Amino acid sequence: MTEAARVPRHIAIVMDGNGRWAKARHRPRSFGHNAGRKAVREAVESCLREGVQVLTLFAFSSENWQRPQDEVGALMNLFVRALDKEVEELHGHGVRLRFIGDLQAFDEPLRLRMHEAMTRTAGNDRLHMNVAVNYGGRQDIVRACQCATEAVAKGELRVEEIDESRLGQWMSLADLPPLDLFIRTGGEYRISNFLLWQAAYAELYFTDTLWPDFDQACLRLAIEDYARRERRYGRTGEQVTANH
Ligand code: IPE
Ligand code: IPE
Ligand code: MG
Questions:
Q1: How far away, in angstroms, is 36 Cα from ligand 1 center?
Q2: Which listed site, 21, 25, 151, 189, has its alpha carbon 20 to 30 Å from 144?
Q3: Is residue 237 part of a domain?
Q4: For residue 152, how many C-alpha atoms fall within 13 Å in the half-sphere facing its CB?
Q5: Domain assignment present for 189
Q6: Which ligand is nearest to the CA of 210?
Q7: Beta partners for residue 206, in sequence order
Q8: Is residue 193 lining ligand 2, measured as CB closer than 6 Å?
Q9: Which residues surround ligand 3, an ion (CB under 5 A)?
Q10: CATH code of the domain containing 63
Q11: In total, how many domains does the chain have?
Q12: Is 238 inside a domain boundary?
């Protein structure tokens, strides 16, 4: 990897393991979710320091509604509290906050806070922080297909013109640098319907560390691991070396 490419421009994280972290301490799962807030702050600080341009965090999947009602409720309360407390500081650091996923499903007070946070930080560009809530990777692809179909129906696009790059323009985060590094904490080796389209050529990094324990040193390790990868995009190692 060239020197400039050693730091990923775009990191995505599946913040997993809060429940097990709490269980190990004989505390309710919501205690683990709350403890995860510190890890979010650490990740943001690291990205600012390392010069990462985009950080995309998976906070609530479209499948997480299936959890017990009290846990879903606790998570919603946590999101509200976190937005109330953290947005100004993020704004002060030049972070642009964006929520991806279907926000319609959330109740009014939370939706309002999300929109306010996006508006408040819209002018920032030091770090783009995207939080995926009620997000599903398949749904993201379906929505892009719906946009393409609509454009065809309106006569603005011909079917033959739909290619990867055209369809990709309708996916979440299409305006940001492509995903370089996909991290999952908590020891599971799966994507759980996160950025399916966007992760096509991302480097994957899995760690057993539970999300509340994931600190700046942990992220540094992930970035160092990434720096040692050879991204070939289908070519041979020799071709990649020759191009440098
Ligand atoms: C991830 O931690 C946070 C959310 C899904 C909201 P978990 O709650 O999935 O933690 P584990 O996997 O049960 O330990
Ligand atoms: C993925 O974690 C979603 C988030 C981290 C928000 P889960 O814990 O919900 O994933 P599964 O159910 O183990 O695949
Ligand atoms: Mg989990």
A1: 10
A2: 189
A3: no
A4: 13
A5: yes
A6: 1
A7: 184
A8: no
A9: 16
A10: 3.40.1180.10
A11: 1
A12: no
212 lines ligand 1 (CB under 6 A): no
What is the model's pLDDT at position 3? 62
| Ligand 2 atom closest to the CA of 15, numbered from 1 | 5
Q: Which ligand is nearest to the CA of 188?
A: 2
Query: What pLDDT is attached to residue 4?
Result: 63
DSSP H helices, 129-193, are 137-153, 164-168
* Catalytic residue flag (residue 125): no
Cα(15) to centroid(ligand 3), Å:
8
Task: Determine the average pLDDT of the residues in 227-242.
Answer: 96
Burial 53-77 (b: 16+ CB within 10 A, else e): bbbbbbbbbbebeebeeeeeebbbe
- Cα of 183 from ligand 1 centre, angstroms: 15
Measured by CA distance, the residue closest to atom 9 of ligand 2 is 64
Please report which confidence band the pLDDT of residue 2 belongs to, taking 50, 70 and 90 as the band edges: low
**113-154: per-residue pLDDT in tens?**
999 999 999 999 999 999 999 999 999 999 999 999 999 999
Q: Which domain holds residue 209?
A: 4-231
Flag whether 112 is in a domain.
yes
Q: Report d(CA 129, CA 140) in Å as an integer.
A: 18
Phi and psi for 55 in degrees, rounded to 5? -125, 120
Q: What is the mean pLDDT of residues 90-105?
A: 98
The pLDDT score that the predictor gives to residue 102 is 98
From the candidates 64, 77, 124, 193, give the one annotated as an active-site residue.
64
Q: With the CA atoms of 19, 33, 218 and 208 taken in that order, what torsion angle do they form, in degrees rounded to the nearest 10?
A: 10
Q: Return the SS3 of 214.
A: coil
